[in-house]
Write a structure and sequence with these properties.
alpha+beta; 3-stranded antiparallel sheet; 3 helices; two-stranded parallel ribbon; about 25% helix; about 25% strand
């Protein structure tokens, strides 16, 4: 089930975000673009979002773990999701 949350950015502009609902609690979903090559090519906002997330879903967990180690992102549950396992993981 999905819900839409109305959020305000730093400038006060409203935007809607999709949020999964679990146990009646809205959990925000953030999609963060990560660097393909140089691990320094990531924004401060992306790093903040990754540090504050409770769970990470990554296409390649090995690459995410390298990024997390490089930028001192605390350990948290990390799950893989890619084209080959998307259907099975979606239910989780």
């Amino acid at each position: 089930m999905q819900a839409f949350l109305t959020m305000r950015d730093g400038a006060g502009n409203e935007r809607e975000e999709i949020s999964p609902v679990r146990g009646g609690v809205n959990l925000p979903l953030y999609i963060v673009a990560t660097p393909i090559g140089n691990m320094e090519d990531i924004t401060l906002r992306a790093l903040k979002t990754l540090r504050e997330a409770d769970v990470i879903i990554a296409e390649d967990t090995r690459t995410y773990r390298k990024l997390a180690a490089r930028h001192s992102i605390p350990a948290k549950p990390v799950y893989s999701m890619y084209k080959g396992n998307e259907s099975a993981r979606a239910d989780e």
